[in-house]
Amino acid sequence: MNRRKFIKSGSLFFAAGTLSSFDFPDAPTYEFNDKVEGPVILSTWIHGLEANRAAWNVLAKGGSALDATVAGAMHTESDLTNRSVGIGGRPDRAGHVTLDACVMDGDGRSGSVGFLEGIAHPAAVAKAVMEKTPHAMLVGAGAKQFALDHGFETIKTPIPEVKKDYLAWKKENKDLFKPPKINHENHDTIGLIARDAKGNFGGTCTTSGWAYKMPGRLGDSPIIGAGLFVDNEVGAATATGLGEAIIRVAGSAIVVELMRIGMKPSEACKEVVLRIIRKNKDLTGLQCGFIAMDKEGNVGGFSVYNGFNFALKSSLRDEMVDADFDRKW
Ligand code: SD4
Questions:
Q1: Which are the catalytic amino acids?
Q2: Domain that holds residue 259
Q3: Spacing, Cα 174 to ligand 1 middle (Å)
Q4: 209 within a domain of the structure (yes/no)
Q5: Does 221 sit in the ligand 1 pocket, CB within 6 Å?
Q6: What is the pLDDT of residues 137-183, one digit of tens each?
Q7: What is the CATH number of the domain that holds 61?
Q8: What is the number of the ligand 1 atom nearest to the C-alpha of 210?
Q9: C-alpha–C-alpha distance, residues 256 and 72, integer Å
Q10: Is 82 in the pocket of ligand 1 (CB under 6 A)?
């Protein structure tokens, strides 16, 4: 797989009409026939392989796409060696590990948490926000209280290894308000999107965010439409990378909307990446990647820089896929 053939053509968009609300005059289309039958789960980055297997346990038993993605996310959140998700995540510049997550199902229900500290599984809390509250998002102390009230597992963070790194970083970075340099090592959030045996979609995105971020900073990952978007009428998309840039183009929602008007997942992801590139004059280290799948089972991804990959699991496949990209580091 992974031989992407580029075909320059704008015809899809003209055929689809209603172009005026989107700004991609020379929108290219791509021939990309990576079609997957039956239940399938896609997750960002190499940690997605194991997350997918955890998610598969749910999908294979006929469980929902949403539950599968939450199970996969929780697997990664428990991985103490993972420095960008969950318990082993890196702190903000004040030393606090604050976690962000969101979930969405194919009927448009969603829940999210942001700036959540001391709770092991923000993805599960996000699902509880969706199911047990009238709200779409809880943050900070309120999110924590909600998690405690509902018996979610507590944790002490940062874990010792991470604290050691933080103290070393702090020594080197006396000017605590100077933004850290973003690079690809700093980006490893997990976003998972799935289609279940009934054809329903669901997704989860979870992260500890930008390492040594300013206290109070939220990225795209807990924001519906930015880090994740799901719609049974179309499919699903999720994002990873510099959250500020992803938020500013409503990244995942636009990927889904582009698929709605006829783009394949990989070309929809590419279109949003190109928009990010156009809107950010300084791309130094600005990595963003999207993955998506549509109702027909086409899957794809695209990133600003090379090096972004995603894990794919179905009944027949269990593999990493290199996403296409616009430029090399
Ligand atoms: C954020 N998007 O907080 C997340 C970080 C990330 O890969 O994706 N890292 O901005």
A1: 189
A2: 35-325
A3: 24
A4: yes
A5: yes
A6: 999 999 999 999 999 999 999 999 999 999 999 988 876 666 655 55
A7: 3.60.20.30
A8: 3
A9: 22
A10: no
